[in-house]
Amino acid sequence: MQGGVWMARVKKKERQRLLLEQVKTKPFLTDEELAKYLEVSVQTIRLDRLELGIPELRGRIRNMAEKAQNKVKSIQSGEVVGELIDLELGHSGISLLRVTDDMVFAKTQIAKGHYMFSQANSLALAVIDAPMAVTGVANVKYKVPVHVGEKLIAKAEIVKVRGNKYFVWVKTHNETQEVFRAKFIMVSWGEK
Amino acid sequence: MQGGVWMARVKKKERQRLLLEQVKTKPFLTDEELAKYLEVSVQTIRLDRLELGIPELRGRIRNMAEKAQNKVKSIQSGEVVGELIDLELGHSGISLLRVTDDMVFAKTQIAKGHYMFSQANSLALAVIDAPMAVTGVANVKYKVPVHVGEKLIAKAEIVKVRGNKYFVWVKTHNETQEVFRAKFIMVSWGEK
DNA sequence: TGAGATTGTAGTAGCAGGTACTAAAAATGC
DNA sequence: GCATTTTTAGTACCTGCTACTACAATCTCA
């Protein structure tokens, strides 16, 4: 076959690359379907999977389901966007958010603005010492674009309290500079 | 057994209730494990599943994995938070967002503010006719709390363009009233 | 109290989608 | 041209079922 004009099948390495890619994009294919797609026998697919450490269909599905369950939980339980590093209830708080690749625009690789907002907003809510509260007003300014991999440190501070209104300032910076700042007026209610 | 002092097992109805509950909270149990838990035979579990329309373990896992995949996709591909209903590039746009129970605070059942912000912000970005842009400034006001099940209609309008700065106003209302409004200054770049 | 209906158990055959293994055919390297 | 690598074929076995038959236990209520 070497040098032949017609080479429908590809060599092992290339096939395994294709296999990995296929399994990653379409994880619900059986060995039989994969074999058909790559024009080899089922046994070859099995050997390849063994070499590449790809689990069987059921295992793949199971992994997805388990991962998904964890993810749902962590999103749901996350009342605060980002990781709460420090909190002085009624005064100030600090949270950390790592920018991952699902937070950015595919085209520009720049973080979507609402992640910074969400981090700041949920932190602002966390610092105020009231049983229930909502955001009333927000004034925010994006100073420089944020990219994948950056660590965003948001620092919130309550600057004024008037009645049931809390005035909270949040400044967010990455390793080198301030990237975002926001002023919130949070409104609380419920007996305190 | 009726009226007996010792009744380890429960009646059919109650057992099926327990079964549903168990499957919902721990979807990874096999029939055998369920049978042990409910102190009946495997066959009984199978009959119960049949009656209740509960799919087998593999089916349950598969459903979870598929649902999860859809969710991930819809979040990732969603450059716009909400559903784009109408878009006049360079002028205005409308988007719809349904408030689901994972968008609200468990305690208050009120939607987290950053969902309204995200909807508005991503819509503001979508309407401006430029290859690349980011949010520069945002001024937002939350007018009334939003609850599960409400449909949020956000209408964005470009009110002014100065150089590479776009001034966009977004008003969001539910079925009955305005719940949120925002003014954005978006900054664009790249040859146009 | 007892006959019929309901509910639960047992067991078998068969299926999907594999693993783990043996053996041999085909391609390739040099 | 012969050894080595790669691929294919086939078998036994596994899990977690479905689909079915047969029968035992329990409940109902007349």
Please describe what this structure looks like.
The structure is a homodimer of 192-residue chains. With 192 residues, the first copy, chain A, is of the alpha+beta class. Chain A folds into 2 domains: 12-76, Arc Repressor Mutant, subunit A (Orthogonal Bundle), CATH 1.10.10; 83-189, Hotdog Thioesterase (Thiol Ester Dehydrase, Chain A, Roll), CATH 3.10.129. Helix content of chain A is 36%, strand content 30%. Chain A is built from 5 helices and 6 strands, in the order H-H-H-H-E-E-H-E-E-E-E. Chain A has helices at residues 12-25, 31-38, 42-52, 57-77, 113-127, and strands at 83-88, 92-98, 132-142, 151-162, 165-173, 178-189. The longest helix of chain A is centred in the middle third of the chain and has 21 residues, at 57-77. Chain A is elongated. Mean pLDDT of chain A is 86; it is low at 1-8 and 73-77. At the A-B interface, helix 4, helix 5 and strand 3 of A face helix 4, helix 5 and strand 3 of B. Strand 3 of chain A pairs antiparallel with strand 3 of chain B. The first copy, chain A, binds a DNA duplex (30 and 30 nucleotides) through helix 3 and helix 4.
Question: Helices and strands in order, then pairings?
Answer:
The structure is a homodimer of 192-residue chains.
Chain A: H1 12-25, H2 31-38, H3 42-52, H4 57-77, E1 83-88, E2 92-98, H5 113-127, E3 132-142, E4 151-162, E5 165-173, E6 178-189
Antiparallel strand pairs in A: 1-2, 2-4, 3-6, 4-5, 5-6
Helix pairs in contact in A: 2-3
Chain A binds a DNA duplex (30 and 30 nucleotides) through residues 1-2, 12, 30-32, 40-44, 46-47, 50, 56-59.
